[in-house]
Amino acid sequence: MAESDQLPLVSVGIPTYNRRALLEHTLKSALEQQYPRLEIIICDNASTDETEKFCREWEARDSRIRYIRHPNNLGSTGNFISALEAADGEYFMWLADDDWIEPGYIEHCAKILAENPDCCLAGGKSDYYHDGVLVRTGEDILITREDPADRVVEFCSKVMHNAVFYGLMRREILRKIPFLRTWGNDQILMTGVAYCGKIITQDGPRMGRRLGGISAKPSEVLADANMHKIWTSFACFLAYGQLIRQCRVIIWEFKIYRDRSFLSRCVLAARVSVAQFRRTEISPIMAMIQRARNVLLIRKRMEKLARHFKLHGDSDFRSR
Predict the structure, then answer these.
(1) Is a pLDDT exceeding 70 seen at residue 295?
(2) Which CATH number fits domain 7-98: 3.40.50.2000, 3.90.550.10, 2.160.10.10, 3.40.630.30?
């Protein structure tokens, strides 16, 4: 038996919808990986462009590709779930249909998982592009504490853009955690992953990410979460809705947290709440409160000026 045959099979799930123009770059970046045991699953969410023709041509050309076309649109989350359910690999990763991975990325991540049995997610850094221009580089994420609750709190304190969602994961762990149809479902999912094991990102081959996908269109994300589009006008409250759901998940909903007592789960939910409140990026209500305070201060000053005018008249100000 060849040494490569003993390596874990890696499944790359590419959910796609009407992205024929971008999908080719994504697919080629996966096919150019040198990791010997690889399957690529393209889940087509009932595209109406040339996606089906393109994918069937590539499926006939390369045995590593498996193309699945859904007769009806399952929504973004449903399509992501279908990629995971179709995978056979011991390791699994999602690859968005407008992103790409550099050569050696999968081999790099698989090596981290193989060398760290208590690690359940490995990734490289992510570079974010807008119209072909590098905008920013994602943060280093090392969630390596021994206590699962500490890892969850550390994850909620550190992770901003959640690029680790596209890291390489142990499929058996990922399948234990429900992928909800709700706002911020990727964050809730990855919080569960952090509870199950360590998360390691190391510099090396990187993932390229285009800004402007579905995550940049709140109306589409809300529709996928079965939420009315009116919430786009109250986006500042969505982060708090996500936080409430996160606490419900920890205390009542997800079985992975049931190894802790009810009181311990409540304490963990409180710690998560504190960690997320401290992050200004997801604390819009605190900003609203600050703005309201500023308005009140301005109003008090205006009232003070009005009283001054009433007592001293306009001449007192002209003489100054």
Answers:
(1) no
(2) 3.90.550.10
